[in-house]
C-alpha cells in the first residue's frame, strides 16, 4: 500500500550540499516513514554523514528543503531541531567520561526538564530525576552500572549509555550514526537488540556499515553513492541490486559482508 505524505516523519526535497565546487550531497529525496527503522548505507565518501549533518543542522544545505512532521525546518538551528524531537547520537561516544553512568543520564534528563541553569547548584533537582534515570538505565541493560564512573565502562556499554542519554531527551526521531562501529561480535548483537527494543513508539534513522545489522533491523534502506541516492527498498531488494553489489561490496554478495 502506498504511503501518504502524512505517514512520513522526515522528508527531504532535492537536498544539495556543495563545498567550493564539490557536490557532497546531490538532489537527495529522503522519505522516512513514521515508526520505521530506516538505514542509510553506502561506501565511504558516499555522503551519509553529510546528510546527517544537514538533517541536524550542523550544516546548512546549499539548496533543497527538509521537513519534519510536515514543518519546514530547513533553516532552523540545531537547538531548535532538538526541541522539536530530533536527537542525534554521535559516531564517537558523546558522554561525560568522569561522571557516573547515573549522573550522565540525569544531566540529559535535566536538559529535557529545562533545569540546565541549575546544573551546578541544586542536588535536589538532580535527585528528583533519579527514578526516571534508573528506569532508562534498566531499559538499556545498565542498571547494575549506575554508580560506575563512565570511563571504566567497556566500549559497548558506553554506546548503550549514549542511547540512554538520547532516550532521556524523549526523541520522536533518533538519528544513530554508526552505532556498532568498533564493536566486537557480542557487543554488535547486543546493540542491535537494544536498537530494536528502543525503536518502539519512535522512528530511527541510522547510518550503519554492518550489513548484518542492517538486514536484521531496517524496514527500509536508502543507498547513497557519490552523494546521490542509488536505490531504495527493503533489504532483499537492495542486496540483490547489481549496482549496489558493485558500488558497495565490489564482487561480494552483501549478505556475506559484515563491515
UniProtKB/TrEMBL annotation:
Gene Ontology MF terms: ATP binding; ATP hydrolysis activity
Keyword Transferase: no
Top-level taxon of the source organism: Bacteria
CDD domains registered for this protein in UniProt: ABC_Mj1267_LivG_branched (cd03219)
CC per GO annotation: plasma membrane
UniProt-listed InterPro entries: AAA+_ATPase, ABC_AA/LPS_Transport, ABC_transporter-like_ATP-bd, BCA_ABC_TP_C, P-loop_NTPase
UniProt keyword list: ATP-binding, Nucleotide-binding, Transport
Residues annotated as domain ABC transporter: 10-251
Pfam families, A to Z: ABC_tran, BCA_ABC_TP_C
Protein name as annotated: ABC transporter ATP-binding protein
Organism from which the protein derives: Idiomarina baltica
Amino acid at each position: 500500500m502506498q504511503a501518504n505524505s502524512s505517514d512520513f516523519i522526515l522528508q527531504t526535497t532535492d537536498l544539495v550540499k556543495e563545498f567550493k565546487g564539490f557536490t557532497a550531497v546531490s538532489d537527495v529525496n529522503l522519505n522516512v516513514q513514521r515508526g520505521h527503522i530506516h538505514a542509510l548505507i553506502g561506501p565511504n565518501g558516499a555522503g551519509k554523514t553529510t546528510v546527517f549533518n544537514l538533517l541536524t543542522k550542523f550544516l546548512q544545505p546549499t539548496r533543497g528543503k527538509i521537513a519534519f512532521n510536515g514543518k519546514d525546518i530547513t533553516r532552523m538551528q540545531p537547538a531548535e531541531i532538538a526541541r522539536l524531537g530530533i536527537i542525534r547520537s554521535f559516531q564517537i561516544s558523546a558522554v561525560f567520561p568522569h561522571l557516573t553512568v547515573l549522573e550522565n543520564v540525569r544531566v540529559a534528563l535535566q536538559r529535557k526538564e529545562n533545569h540546565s541553569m541549575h546544573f551546578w547548584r541544586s542536588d535536589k533537582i538532580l535527585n528528583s530525576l533519579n527514578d526516571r534515570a534508573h528506569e532508562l538505565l534498566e531499559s538499556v541493560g545498565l542498571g547494575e552500572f549506575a554508580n560506575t564512573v563512565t570511563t571504566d565502562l567497556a566500549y559497548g556499554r558506553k554506546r548503550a549509555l549514549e542511547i540512554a542519554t538520547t532516550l532521556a531527551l524523549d526523541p520522536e526521531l533518533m538519528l544513530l550514526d554508526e552505532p556498532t562501529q568498533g564493536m566486537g561480535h557480542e557487543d554488535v548483537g547486543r546493540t542491535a537488540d537494544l536498537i530494536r527494543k528502543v525503536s518502539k513508539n519512535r522512528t530511527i534513522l541510522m547510518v550503519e556499515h554492518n550489513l548484518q545489522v542492517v538486514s536484521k533491523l531496517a524496514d527500509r534502506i536508502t543507498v547513497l553513492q557519490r552523494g546521490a541516492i542509488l536505490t531504495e527498498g527493503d533489504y532483499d531488494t537492495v542486496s540483490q541490486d547489481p549496482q549496489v553489489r558493485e558500488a558497495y561490496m565490489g564482487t561480494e554478495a552483501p549478505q556475506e559482508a559484515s563491515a
